[in-house]
Write a structure and sequence with these properties.
The chain is 63% helix and 0% strand. It is mainly alpha-helical. Helix 2 packs antiparallel against helix 4, helix 2 packs antiparallel against helix 8 and helix 4 runs parallel beside helix 8. The relative contact order is 0.13.
């Protein structure tokens, strides 16, 4: 933890005016808070990170492909598309947790993060209305979407604080 004693105006009352010391003290505290970069969001991202460790929902995706086989084209591969999308969210999550959010911009992942799965992969929009019929898939989907939203929020605040 940080030792703020050297800035405490009440400890240094004889060496400087209290008002001067208080201004310096609060400016230092403000810098500490800024350096911490959104602790509430990071806490939520850490909690969500635990939910992203679930195995891929192959049983539900197989059911989806069987239930909606008429909606899938020969080129569609739900597992591959979903895996790609979720891995982008997971890697972005890991970059933020490790303090390397710049990598998200360097690797141009932000364009993926701005779109939901159904916006990115338009061919699966038919699934949107019945997604809750597949509980494991739905739970995982919601966890990844929450994580994606927190990532976007974090990146927005980070850029706002830098400006």
């Amino acid at each position: 933890m940080y030792n703020l004693d050297f800035l405490d105006p009440f400890r240094n009352i004889r060496s400087e005016k209290v008002s001067t010391g208080m201004v310096r003290y609060f400016q230092y505290l403000l810098e500490l808070v800024k350096a911490e970069k959104n602790p509430i969001i990071l806490k939520e991202l850490l909690k969500l990170g635990e939910t992203l460790k679930n195995p891929f929902p192959y049983q539900d995706t197989e059911l989806i492909q069987n239930d909606y086989k008429d909606f899938f084209s020969e080129d569609d591969c739900l597992n591959a598309d979903l895996n790609t999308y979720w891995m982008i969210i997971l890697s972005s999550h890991n970059y933020i947790i490790r303090g390397k959010s710049d990598e998200i911009y360097k690797k141009n992942l932000i364009k993926w993060l701005k779109l939901s799965f159904f916006d990115q992969f338009d061919q699966y929009k038919f699934l949107k209305t019945n997604i809750d019929k597949y509980p494991i898939f739905y739970k995982d989907y919601l966890n990844y979407e929450k994580t994606r939203m927190y990532i976007l929020y974090y990146l927005f605040l980070e850029r706002k604080l830098l400006n």
